[in-house]
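During data preparation, a discrete fold description was generated, as reproduced here:
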Amino acid sequence: MVFSSLLFIFAFLPLCLAAYSLCKNNTARNIILLIFSLIFYTWGEPVYVLLLISMTFCDWLMAILLDKTKGQTVRRLILFSACTINLGLIGVFKYTGFILTNVQNIFGVPGVIPKIILPIGISFYTFQLLSYVVDVYRKEVPSQKNFFWLLLYSSLFHQCIAGPIVRYKDVENDILNRRVNHREIAEGITRFTVGLGKKVLIANTCGSLADTLLVTDSLMASSPTEALAELSTRSAAGLWLGMLFYMLQIYLDFSAYSDMAIGMGLMTGFHFKENFNYPYIAKSVTDFWRRWHISLSTFFRDYVYIPLGGNRKGKLKTYRNLLIVWFLTGLWHGASWNFVLWGLFFFVFLCIEKLGLLKILEKTPSFFSRAYLLLVVYFGWILFRFSDFRFIPIVLKGLFCQNGNPLMDFETKTLFFGNIFFIVVALIAVTPAIKLIGDKLKSKSTEKKSVFVILTILNIILPLTLLVLSAISLVGDAYNPFIYFQF
């Protein structure tokens, strides 16, 4: 993984950008990006790249048929076929083991459950292709007649395996008529290196500290009894701090990949929408889900919630629609009941807010509404982290010293004070503080030449510093997890 990361940063991406810069027109640029994107995906999935190409071909063909067909009944049949194929494939690869395990637990059959490797990024590119076909059906966008351009959309290495979920109508013009300018290239480089630093320097460290204070995924998988015994002895302070590190890690990790995708997009003329908007400063669960994984939230809103009727058909159906959306949101994150429970956990709080809590929160001082949100999200991440339900009550009881565990121990105290500076940096990184300072400097740079000079120097030094530090960290540390590979 470390070698692959360094190879991508210092060989694959520079070669792609160099070849891209030599192209004279948009067609040549698209061909270069498509070739590099297919090489990139084949690098990680030498067999399943055929699945990606086949799914794209199927949706390309269905969209063209939708454009040419006038009869509404036939158009609905084509759309149904496309949805069935896409959802059927993701169901086979992502949920077969989950379904058969539950059947086995109830009925005792089948005796052997097949191990199906999950294709990297299948949840992201499947949803992108689904949104494309549905938008063509709705006549919100014309079908793309060039198969290779649609394949570029579905396989673009910037965001193919880690998001954000990009809708075709948002990048149609970029695919066909994009232009690259030096200002956006500079912005893209900065955004990419900021994301890289956020991932390698902060998120990875948070993940390592969380594993130290909790238990590792490998131990839970290989020896759950030993992991349960070990977790039950953790101090309350250690559990609180460990889950805080996990809470920071999962945001910093995922948002970092979105930052890198947006940055690489800008380097090549693509404009991807923001996927995170500092969700940990939200004042309600409703607000949180307007800020967290925005591309997924809006996908379910536009393609599930609103088609089901949204909030237009009475309160009972509104809550039914919300239940379906949050069940699917949880299931999208992983083939395990803890993810479903996590989705339903947020469904409950969203319903409570709709029933009147939201109005109370709007009148409540920001400190209390933000504290409420952080507590809800914090306990939600406990459900998210532990796929084995046996661990969840151990953690919940341990947070309040109900396992016979101590309030504090020497290891937690040493780890906390030894990382106090890092904790402050990580907490600042999940707020818009640095962005606000940067925006203020930009506004003053037009008035004061000295500020402009300082900002120019920072724009050169910051990306280079983050790149060097990230490379050093990758070379010196083999710990480089990617939480969202399972999605």
User: Anything to note?
Assistant: The CA atoms of residues 9 and 167 lie 26 Å apart.
